[in-house]
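fyi for ur records
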Amino acid sequence: KAGTVGMALPGSSFKIVDPESFEELPSGEAGMVLIGGSQVMKGYLNDPDKTDDVIKTIDGTRWYITGDKGSLDEDGYLTIVDRYSRFAKIAGEMISLSLVEETVRNGCDSEDLEVVAVSIPDVKKGEKIILLADQELNPQKVVAAMRQNKCNPLSIPDTWYSVDQLPKLGSGKTDFTLAKELALELSKEEN
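which gave:
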C-alpha cells in the first residue's frame, strides 16, 4: 500500500505496543514498533545491559525494539510515523520534535528556514524543547502562529537560538546528537 513500509517478511512479524507498558495496541493506533522472528539478534556481544535495552520477550517471543513510532492497519501494513528518539517527554506527555519543527516552519515567512528542535533535561517538566534556527526568528510571532494553529502548548519551545549553521552529517542530514550538544552548551552559557 502506498505510504506504508509494507507487510512483515515471511518468518517475521510486527507488533505495535505502548512504549511504556509494552501492552499491544489495536490496529490503527500508533505506538512503538517491535519486530519479531528468526532474524532478531541474540544480543550485543558482552553487553547484556545494551541487549536488555533493545530486546524484549513477550509471551515467549523475542522482539527487537526498533525505536520507531508506527501503526499497523487492519491488513498488517506498517506505517512509520516518527522516531521515539525524536520525541520529548514533557510533563508526562510525548511531544514530537519533528512536529515542533514543522509548526515553527509553518509559522515563519521564510521559505529557506532550517530549524532543529531538541530536548534537554528540565527539573520542573522532565524535559524542555530548545529550538536552533539558521536565521533570526521572532519567537513571539512564531508562538502566536503556533497557538493560532492550535498546537499543543507543551510543544512551544522554551528557548530559541539562532546559529550560523545547524550541525550536519556527511550525508547532509541534520546531526541530532551534535545539535543536542550545541543546545546544552548554549543553555549553559546563558545560565
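The chain has a mean pLDDT of 89. thats all i got for now
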